[in-house]
Structures are given as C-alpha cells and as structure tokens.
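pinning this so it doesn't scroll away 📌
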Amino acid sequence: MASINFDYCEEADLYNSGEIEEELLKIYKSGRQATIRDNPDFFYTVTDIRENIINWYPFKNGSTILEVGGGLGAITGTLCKNAKKVVSNEYSRRRAENIYYRHKDKNNLEVVVGNIEKIEFKEKFDYIVLIGVFEYSKRFFKKKNPFHFFLNKLKSLLKENGVILIAIENRYGIKYFSGATEDHYGEKYLGLYGYKDYDIETFGKYQLDTIISDCGFSYSKYYYPYPDYKMPYIIYTENRLPLDTEIPGLLFYNHGEQVYDYDYRKVLSGIISNKQFGFFANSFLIEISNNQNALSSIDYVKTSYLRTKKYQINTILDNGTYYKIPKYDEGYQHIKNILETNNSLKKLDINVPKITLKEKYIEIENINGKNLTELIKESFSLNNRKEVSKLIDNYYNFIKRLSTKKIITSYLTEEEKKFFENQKIYILKMGLYDLHPSNILINKGNFFLIDQEWKTKYDIPLKYMFYFGISYIYESIPELELFLPKQEVMSKYNITQSEVVVYSNMSKHISDSGQQIDNEILPIISQHGIFNIEKEERKKIIDNCNQLNIENSNLMELNNQLNIENSNLMELNNQLKDNLEKNTVLIETLKQSNEEKENEILKIMNSRSWKYTKPIRQISKKVRKWCKHEKAER
C-alpha cells in the first residue's frame, strides 16, 4: 500500500484545477478509479494517453524514481510499474491526496507533500522526472536564477550516473507560429514575443541547452513528442523525423478552443528538409545526464491510443531494431497474432521481416529501404508520371500475388453480396486489410510486407484493398491529384463509383468487426482534434472576393468593348439600311425607265415608217453578209 508524508506540507496552494480536484478526490477516496463516465471533463486528467510521454522509456531494473510535481497522478502509475520505488513530490496538499488515493494500491509509492526546496530526502535517485513542471521555476523559487537553481537542486538529488527527464513546451513550437495560444496564459504569440514578468516561462532548444550546460551536465538528448508532451502518440528524435508522406496524416490535439492562422502541417516538410524540426517541435522530452551511456538508444515511438486495451501496443525503434510491446497484459495475444500472420505470409512466399517472440513483446527485424508511398512521392517530385504509374502497377500486382480468384462466400454487408454475388473475382487469401503502400518496403527491388496487425474472417476483394491503398496514397500526397488524377487510376483498373460506395460501407464493418477502436474516447479526441482555421478560411474568402473583383473588372472592361463594337455594328447596320433604301429607289427608277424604253421600241416597230423601210433593212443585211464573205476570201 502507498504512503503519504505531510511533514513538509505548506498551506499555500499555488496551482490547482479548481472544483474538479475535489470531485476526483471524492471518487478516489471511495476506493474506485474516476472515469469520463463520472464527468467528461475528467478526460485530460484520467486518460492513459498522458502516460505515452514516458511509458515506453527503458528505466533500468530495480531503479528508484523521484517524480517532481506529480499533479493529479496522471504519470505516477506508469512510473510505479517500471521502478522498484517511486517518490512523488507534489506541492499542493489536495493534489498530493489525489495521487495517493488514486494509486493507493501501489506498494512502491511514497507521496511527499511540500516544496522540494525544503524537503530533506533520505536518498538519491536513479531518475528524476518532471512532466510539465520546469516552466514553473519562477513561481516556486524566488531566486535570481530560478531555473538554474531548480536544476541544480535536482542534480543534488541525482545519483552519479542518474538521468533527469524533463517534458516542457517549446516556446518556438510551430503551432504557436500558426496561432495556437500559449498553454499557460492563453495568449497568442506570447512565447514568441517574450514572457517579460510572467512567472511561468517556457524555452527554446538553445536556451535549454544553455541552462543544462551551466548546471554542469555534459550530455542531453531531445525527443520530440507529437502533437505535444501532454497528449503524445508519436515521439520522434533527430535519428527518426517525420517522413514527408506521414506529415498530412499527423494528428493534433487542441487544449481549449484554438483558431489557427494556417494548417502548420503544411510547412513541416520544408522545416524538416532544412534540418530545423527540433527548433520548431511543439514540445520536448529531454534526457539529461553526466553519463552518456545512461541515455536511451531509442529513436522512435508510436503508440496506438485510440484502440481498446487488448490492441494497444507501443512500436519502438531502439538501436536499429523494432519492438512491439503491449501496453496492457490483455495485448499479449495481439502481438502473438502478428507473429502468426507473419509466419503465414512466409508460407505464401512473401518477403517479411524476421519476428521473434520474447517474454512480453516481439522483436522485429528492421528492413532497410523506402516504403512504396515514399517512392511514389519521390517520383512525383521528379515529375516522372511514368514511374508513378509503374509503382502503382507494382502495388496492384503485389496485392494480386496475395489473392486468389473465387466466388465470395463470406460477405461483410448485404450490399456487397448484391454487388458480387456469383461473380468469380480476386479475393485476398488471408483476409489482410492493412496492405496500404506504407506497409510495403522496397529493398534492392524486392518487396517486403511489414506491420500486418489486422485480418478478418470475411472474403476481401482485391479491388477493395487496392482502392483504399490508392486512397491512402492520395491522402499522403494530396498534390498528386493534379499530376495523376485518382479517377484516372480507378478507371484504369475498372473500379466504378458504384464499387467505391460498396467498399466504403464494407470498411466501416471491418473496423466494427474487430472492436479495435475505443468508442468511448473517440468522440472526445475527435472534438479536440478539430483543426479550426477560421482565419485561413476568412483569408481564402477575401482572396476569392479579390479574385472575383478582378474578374468582375475584366468582365466590365470586356462589356464596354462589346458595347463599343455593338454601337459600331448598329451604325454599320443603319448605313446598310440607308444604302438598301437608296438601291431600292434606284432599282424602281431603272425598272420604270426600262418600261418606258420598251414602250418606245414597240411604238417604233408598229409605225408605218418601220414597215416601209423593212426591204431596205433586208438588202442592207445581205450586203453586210456578202462583204464579210469577200473579206474572208482575200
């Protein structure tokens, strides 16, 4: 059973979360754990997502840990699982009681209430952990250099080869440049402008390095939890930064309502290519020690926090090898299933990494190479449409290798049954439905299939998997749509819109059938994950209005030109009308004149003189004919 020490307790309560702490304490004192069913506002305090900042860390066996600023005990439980002894120090009495009653069943926990400056600890520690505490140094230590004082105090409590772990916001995090409010004061751009006389202060990487060095520490290592240290689901390092194709799908979590100036994920690619991700990381987890060998060799961690307990695992890249470790004991069967799937793929002559089952985790060979999505992105960047099409063809053919032609006998939905009934089509042999291109690595021209966690008992059409794989590519590389339209790819493989509707519905049922998603927390995560970019939207509207104004001005100018041309045409038309009328009068005049001439001729022909001169005209005609003949003979 845990213990609690009030010997150094002070009455002052410099930091608290209000009435929610009393509600939680009442529940914990009753002997049960608080949940979001008690109060949805408990979520941030009780969710195990908070543990992701540290639950993967390789604390050495039999270690002792000092937790400074234990808060309401969000991290304390996972520390107790990984240490021989944990001392959790909390300044606030009410918060300390929350820690104690929340984790009362932990036999290796001691809670000490009071200001760490005044507490006389009986021992030194292997690890000292501060999660969201260091930034409060000014508030708790009225010293000339409170941050240096605090770190030196911690150093005095650390064993010779011990490690200090500090999680803190980066004042220059990219989310703050895009308009997210400063975490403690709720002001936009505060950390960027400078904290002035505020008694809470965060730092950039160089500032932290300076403090660490000033306090006599020789070694440090930075981890970059994303989206931040409070609700992390991925942890990067300089040895494993976000891939270009990962960036569009990165999740985020808003602490309170946020209005961003732009989607900061869109600028990360350039930041990473210029080797500045560390400067712009939203948060840090920093290892500090005077023994370089005491620092962890872990380069990457990915958690699966949206899943139910039996599917929650941490994927860890440590010293060039991947490990999948279940977060809870219930998850052990899931990692065994991954191994079984891998062995089944080997039997189908599919290249897969070597997987070894250990006592409580699996060890996975790290295959060197780039995944298919990365290669498509590279070919797109080189404007090589032919190569992009070839890689997509290779993807289709690879899935086809995992398929067999048959009539579906096990349907996910009635809609699918109506669409495919009695049709002989290609079906995935093993019911795998996580065959997206980022799980296919290319090594020296060979395709390797990795990370196959999920399969179903239902028959899955090849085209279903191909459609969602292509959709994944276009989500990872949005700009590809203008280069090679997705519909063009669908048409090439004869995937109709009717099929897409069927596949979309099937996808919902596949997820439900596995019961992998924790539907209790999903709505909360979704709510906090709303990327509110009202300013950007307003800017788009303004830009659109400006563009419309320009187009309207151009149209008005064109209208004026048309009016001028129309006026000229009307004038020409009037001239033609005038000419027509004049010509009509002239024609009538000529007709009248012609009629008069014809009448005169008739009068002449009917006169006596015309009749009397007829013989003379005949003789004259003959004389002309004879003369013409004589002239011809000469």
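📌 and the second one:
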Amino acid sequence: MTLDILLDSLELENILGFESLFLDLSGRGLSAVDGENLDNPALENNGSGKTSLGHGLTYGLFGKDMKGRIGDKMLNRYVRKNGLARVRFHTSDRGSGQETHYIVSRFRRHAKFKNELHFETGTIDLTVKQDVDATQAKIEEILGMDWLAWTTAVCIDRFRFISGSDAERKEILDRILGYDQLRTIEEIARRDMREAQTAYSGVTSELAGHDRRLGECDEGIRMSQANETSFSVENERSIQEAVAEIKRLEGLLAETDVADSSAQLAGLRGRMAEIDEALKGEAPLFEMLRTCETESATHSANHRRDSAELANLEREQRDLASGRLTGTRCAACKQPITAEFVSEHLMEVVKEIASRKERLAAENDLLAQYREAIRELNEAKRGFETLKTERGQLVAVEPELVAAEMKRAQELSAAKNRIENLRNNVHEKRAATNPHTEYLETERTKRKKILQEKIDKKAELERIKAKLADAEFWVTGFGNAGIKSLLLDHVMGPFTEMTREYTRMVTDDQITLRLHTQKELKSKDEKRDVCWVEVANRHGGEDYLDQSGGETARIDICAAIGLNDLAASRSNRTIRFLFLDEPFEKIDAAGWPRIMRLLKKVAETRKVLVVSHLPDLRMQFDKRLLVRRQGDVSRLVEA
C-alpha cells in the first residue's frame, strides 16, 4: 500500500508570537509568507513571525521546533500557559483512494490537558495514555520520518545537508530514506560484535590465566616433590639425632650419684648440730667469767686497801717505837700521850700488823686462784668463738650445698623429661605422614582440573570466534558497505538526476551535483565508506566550499528540493509539502526568476510555502500569506 501524506491545517494557541492562528495547508501550489512588523517599522518585515509558522508546524508534529527548542520555550512569552499546537493531516491510498484523517494536538501548560500529547483519527483515539514517547513514535510511524528528516527535507530553516559532516549526511539520508531501521539492526549487530569481542578478550585472558595457573601448578608440583624428599631426609636425620641424644642422656643419668651431695649436706648439718649443742654452755661460762672478774676486782680492791692500812700501821709502829710521840697530845682527845699508852698501843699495832699480813697473804692466794680461773674461762671463751666462726662458715656453705643438690636433682629431672620428650618425638616422627605428599596430590588434582577448564575455554573461544564472525558479517551487511550501500547506490542516480534538472534551471547547467557513498583515498588502492556530495562547476571551484555565496545558495536549494523528492519517493510514504525559510537570502536579483521558476515547477506536485521579504516577488506566487505583528502579537492575514 502506497500512501500520500497531505497536510490539512495548522492551529496555534499561545505558541511563540501567536495568540490564535489557523492556517489552511490543503491543496497544492506556491505560497509566499510575507510579514509586517508594525511594532518596529525599522525592521520592516523581520520579527513579524513568518518563520514561526514552520516552527509551530514542526513543534506540533515532533515536540520541538526547527531549531530544536522544546517545552516552555515554545509558549507565548506574555501568556506563558494554555499552549496548543494542532496539526491536521490525512493519508490517501493511491490504489484505492481511501483516506484516513489524523489530528495531532500538543498541549503545553494547558489548564485542562497539562503537557499531554493527543493523537487521534476521526473515530479512534491513538494516544498512549501517560506515555508521550510512545504516542510520538506512533505519529512518526504514520509520517514515515522523524524530526531530523523533517527539518532537512520538508520543513527547512537552514540547509545542513551538504555543509554537514559525513556522519550527519549519513544520518540525514538514513532518516529520510527510512534506513534508520538498518542502522538499528547494525547497532544490534555491533552490540553483539562488541559483546563477542569482550567475551573473546575475556576468554583469551582467562586462557592466559589458565596457562599461568598451569605453570604455577607445575612449579608447585616440582617444589612439592623436592619438599617431599627433603622432608623425608630431614625427618630421618631428626630421628637419628634424637636417638643419639637419648643414649647420651641415659649415660649421664647412670654416671650421676645424688647420694654424694646428700651425704655432704647431712654431714654439714650434723656438725652444725654438734656446735649448737656445745654452744649451749657458752652462757653459763660467760656468767662464771663475769662473776670471777667481779670477785677478782673486789678482792683486788680489798688487797689494795689492806696494803695501804698495813703501810699506815707499820708507819705508826715506827713512830711509836721511836718514842717521838711520848709527851705529845693526842690529836683526837687532846690528852698527853704517856709512855705506858705508847707501849700498850705499840703492842696492839704489832698484833694488827701481823693479822693484816696474814689476811693479805690469804687474799693474794685467792686473787691468784681468780686470775687462773679467769684465764681458763677466757681460754674456753676463745674455744666458743672458734666454734661460732666454724658454724658461720658452715651456714655460709649450706646454701651452696642445698643449691647444688637442687640443681643436680633438677638436671636429673630435666634429663629424664628430655628423654621422655625425645622418645615421644621419635614416635611421632616415625608415625607422621609427609605433609608435602598430600599437597603434591592436591596440586596434581588441581592441574587436571585447570587443564580440563582450559580445554573447555578453548572450545568456548571457538564458539565466540564463530559468533564474532557472524556479528562482523551482519555489521558489514547492514553497514554502509553492505545493504545500505546497495540501497544508497540505488538512490544516488535518482538524486543526481533530480538535482541535475534543478541545477540546470538555476545555473544554466553550469553546476551539477552527484551523491557518492565511497571516496577513493590518495593511495588509489582502496576506498573508504563516506557520504559526500560532489559539486562540479564548469567555471568555478571544484568543491562546495570553493563556491561563491550565491552559488552555494542555489546549490543548497537544489539539494534541499532533491532531498524532498527523495522523501516523496521513498518506500510507501510520500509527504507532499515543502517549507523554505528565506531561500532568496543570498541570491542576487538576477537569480530570483530562475529560483521562482524552479519553485513553481516543484509546487506542481506539492504544497510549497516560502518565507520571503522581497516585495518584487510577491506577484509571482500563487498565494500570499501575510503575518502582521502588532501590539506584541502576530496574526495571519491572507492577502
């Protein structure tokens, strides 16, 4: 089924400079869109709102204007609410003539419908509730193009095709010709290819990891084997050393006699007991010594006193015997001393002297006895001192003997414990399992597992290679060098023929345009996929950028109309409408008639609106639409 898509009308409320607008878009023919700016006459018709017709139409269908502005930026700046852009269009089946009418209503900050998008036929509501994107996709599906294709080939405010980049030209052609589905498939294939490449890199990396792990396992096995042998040798050496040490310690125990040190300590303690027993007599002896010394001192004092008294008696004897005292008076009684008194007293003195001498002799004997006893007691005292000195020496030696005995006992106990530990150690080592044997077995099992994983990964890598080859095939097949290239080759001829007719009309066949999908590199040996338009000027530059301003303007108009023709001829959707904003802007007056002749020819098969501010051309249009700005409001006045 082949459909013609025809625009019926445009309604704007509070959009851009318009408070209210209704524009009839039905039928065919060439219409001029002129303007008057009564708010600022110095600007003449600039700023009147002429181009806003194209912006409003584009916004109504796609949600953004020709410049890409969206949302509140599309509202009338003085009202800022209750925005509405409504576009009516219908499709006509070329075979059956059946028509389907559609209404697109886009609201912005509307009191009732908020920011909703409504899409309906006369009887069916096609709106996807609460999903503007899904509703927009339905509109674009009916129109057969999206915003980029629309603003490049249908509603044009600037010519971007030839002057754009290679990627931009490819994208524009994809959108106009409906090849974006091929691009979607290509992207899916590229995604699969990237996933396969990522998986390939991952598995390759894993294989490298497996090789590394296998190397580590081989090294581990080698080291484990060496460690296993080393452990066995070292274990046997340790057992032999322990056995030798046990024999040495057992010999040491046999040679050691604890009784020797014990007998020495017992003898020392016995002698100390004897000395302690002997020292018990020290106190009585000291008491006797003190008594003898006291008695000796007393008798010595008496002896000295008696000796002095004897000396006095002997002196008195001499005095009495000499007769010198006879006739003298007594010093005590003052009586005269007679010879009879002297004779009697002399006799008494002699007797006293004899008595004193006897007593002195007895005292001398007693003093001699005391002195002998004191000497003997001092000798005994010195014996006690010797015993005390000996005991002190024994007390000093006793701890050494005790310590020696304890040390010997500890050494013997330690030797016995050491022998027991060594015997247990020998038993454990003889019963022990070589730990490296178990680790060696683990490493061998691990190596087998890694080797199997490597085999599995190699198989997986082969599957990924096949998947990658498939993805690369589809990327090439659906890329510019594949199906798309064949399709583009199919449209290159029609585009060139269309534009050739148009350039012949506006340049007297001096300039031709040719669409290419490949470009030969300087090496001449290879070509690169690239979308570019060759500009051939018989009397000018060899490239688009080499042309003059007027020439590039004519080229852009011809290319834009050629793209519009491509859009009209593509698949089963033909939009019979063209909007051009200021196409005469860079063209001198001599070129106007040629452009007008071209536009009239184009208008034979579609509705064409041309925004222009050239009064000399007004009469050459089938119809003139006047947009007048007054009081900050734009209004449409048909003339």
